[in-house]
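Researcher: We're teaching a course module on how sequence relates to structure. For the next exercise, students receive a sequence and then see the predicted structure as tokens, so they can try to spot secondary structure elements on their own. Here is the exercise chain.
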Amino acid sequence: MALEQRVYSVLVVTPTQNFVEQLIPLLPAVRYSPVDRAGSVNEARRKISDRTYDILLINTPLPDENGVRFAMDVTASTSSAVMLFVKADFYETVYEKANAFGVFLLRKPTLSAAIVQALDWLCATRERLRAVEKRSVSLQDKMDEIKLVNRAKWILITNLNMTEDAAHRYIEKQAMDRCVTRRSVAEDILRTYKE
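Model: And here is the predicted structure for the students to work with:
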């Protein structure tokens, strides 16, 4: 069975069109689409507020800041995979700051083969982050369901003088008998006693 081919959205943040022209051949549309460009951190922030990007490629320095703080902010607040292109002279200094935030770095100038390999790492990272997001949403749903069921149990305890165990068993039995989720039973209880 063939693996599903994902398509990754990319934002290239660079003040120079030359950088974009060098990257475009390395970003085939079958794998990377759309590929948007921002010329500054402020423009990139606006674009990120309008849509989510799977991958951010940041060519430092930028006209309004060096881009390092922006890269760290993006990794802290989104699930985008971020790579900074930095001059070799500044690599160690930037690495010390950005590494803890999960920002990838490449020294400039960089060979095309290294960029292609780094793009593969960014895609793998994005997939890992996607899986974490999915687990996080699932966990949040489960916590919401527990809160809802607990509220329904409290209503049964206060209105029908049930014990907590009896209220719990009642909700479980109703869910099994009606072939519905505990959440559905809890919602019905809350609706009934709200009216």
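Model: If you want an answer key for the exercise: The chain has two domains: 8-110, 138-194. The longest helix spans residues 112-160.
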